[in-house]
Specification:
- The chain is an all-alpha fold.
- The chain has one domain: de novo design (two linked rop proteins), CATH 1.20.1440.130.
- The chain is built from six helices and two strands, in the order H-H-H-E-E-H-H-H.
- The protein has a two-stranded antiparallel ribbon.
- The protein starts with a helix and ends with a helix.
Length: 158
């Protein structure tokens, strides 16, 4: 709770534009990956697996949708939101956006862990597109933790 209060009240630290640009690029990788899978889902086509052999099994499993909505579409919305907030941060330098990053990426990271578990232990097949998304969400989460820690550290040095 103290971290959230610090983030809400502290505008003295500004995260480097390079870090935010990196954040935006990683989120764009996630957008491209998940939009590609979503488009193929609605076309009724399984994207080719070039490195692994489990894409069809994973992408047609009962776990590939929630209430009829493809998980990839939810991922595309997540990555698009992160990208837009990255642009907003570049414009405003508002540290409240760091809270949004931290919350969104933590949730996505936990969901990615769950989906990786499902692939390896329940479905027993692995989809390379899912692994790309999991890597992107992990990188975004680690980066958002770095940004939040930087904001908190600057507050304690004042």
């Amino acid at each position: 709770m103290k971290i959230l209060k610090t983030l809400l009240n502290n505008q003295s630290i500004i995260i480097s534009n390079l870090v935010i640009i990196f954040f935006a690029i990683v989120s764009l990788v996630g957008v491209v990956d998940t939009v590609f899978v979503t488009i193929n889902h609605y076309k009724g086509v399984i994207p080719p697996c070039t490195l692994l052999n489990g894409c069809e099994t994973v992408l047609t499993s009962k776990y590939s949708e929630v209430f009829g909505v493809p998980i990839a579409l939810i991922g595309a919305l997540f990555y698009s939101t992160v990208f837009l907030f990255s642009l907003a941060y570049l414009k405003t330098k508002n540290n409240k956006i760091i809270i949004v990053f931290l919350a969104l990426t933590a949730l996505a990271f936990l969901m990615s862990l769950f989906f990786i578990y499902l692939q390896f232990f329940v479905i027993k097949a692995v989809c390379e597109y899912c692994l790309i998304s999991a890597a992107a969400s992990t990188i975004l989460f680690v980066t958002s933790v770095f940004m939040a820690r930087r904001v908190v550290a600057s507050d304690s040095s004042v």
